[in-house]
Design a protein that fits this description.
183 residues; alpha+beta; Aminopeptidase; 6 helices; 31% helix; globular
C-alpha cells in the first residue's frame, strides 16, 4: 500500500491502518451522540469488527479511506472517506466522522474535508464530489455550505429516525466551484 499524507495546518490525513482499530475508535462508533446522523451505530462495534472493516477497504482501488489526525499530539480523531471513487464519471461520495467529541466544533472536520477535496480534484482528477446528509443535521449542512457544497436534491422522508422520518439531502461540489472558491 502506497504512503499518502495530506498536510493541513492543524490536521493531517493518512491511510487508515490496522493500528487505528483501538478501543477509542470502537467507543466513537458505540456512542449514540457520535452516530446519531450516521448509518453506523446499529450494532455494537468491537476491535475485531473494526479490523474487519479496515481489511474490507485496504486493497480497494475505488475507495480513499483516511484517518484524520491532529498534528498536536499525533492523535487520531476521526475518518474521512471517498467511496466509491468512480473513474468513469470522475466523481465520488464523501463521508466524514469526527469521532473524538473533544475535537468537534473546532474546524478540524472542515480542514479535513478541504484536504480531501484538494486531493480529489488535483490528484484523483475528479470532476465532482457529492455527499448525503439528513435534513435534521443542520450543523453539518451549514458546514458543507460554508465549504462551498450546494444542495442538489432532497429525498423526502428518506431516513427513519425511529419515531419519525427525515429528509435526505444531497449536496455536491464541482471542480470548477472548488477552484473558484479556493484558487
Amino acid at each position: 500500500m502506497n504512503e499518502l499524507r495530506l498536510e493541513g495546518e492543524r490536521v493531517y490525513l493518512r491511510r487508515i491502518a490496522m493500528s487505528d482499530a483501538t478501543p477509542e475508535y470502537a467507543r466513537w462508533l458505540n456512542d449514540p451522540d457520535t452516530t446519531r446522523y450516521m448509518e453506523s451505530g446499529r450494532h455494537e462495534e468491537t476491535i475485531k469488527s473494526l479490523r474487519q472493516y479496515i481489511v474490507k477497504y485496504e486493497n480497494r482501488n475505488d475507495v480513499l479511506f483516511l484517518a484524520v489526525v491532529l498534528k498536536d499530539g499525533d492523535r487520531h480523531i476521526g475518518n474521512v472517506k471517498l467511496e466509491p471513487v468512480n473513474k468513469v464519471h470522475n466523481n465520488a461520495l464523501l463521508g466524514i466522522m469526527i469521532g473524538d467529541a473533544d475535537a468537534r466544533g473546532k474546524g478540524y472536520g472542515s480542514e479535513a474535508i478541504l484536504l480531501t477535496l484538494q486531493h480529489a480534484f488535483d490528484v484523483l482528477g475528479l470532476h465532482r464530489v457529492a455527499l448525503g446528509v439528513t435534513a435534521d443535521n443542520e450543523r453539518a449542512i451549514k458546514c458543507y455550505e460554508n465549504l462551498g457544497f450546494r444542495e442538489e436534491g432532497r429525498l423526502r422522508e428518506n431516513v427513519n429516525r425511529q419515531s419519525h422520518y427525515v429528509d435526505g439531502v444531497w449536496m455536491g461540489m464541482l471542480e470548477q466551484e472548488f477552484r473558484e472558491k479556493y484558487g
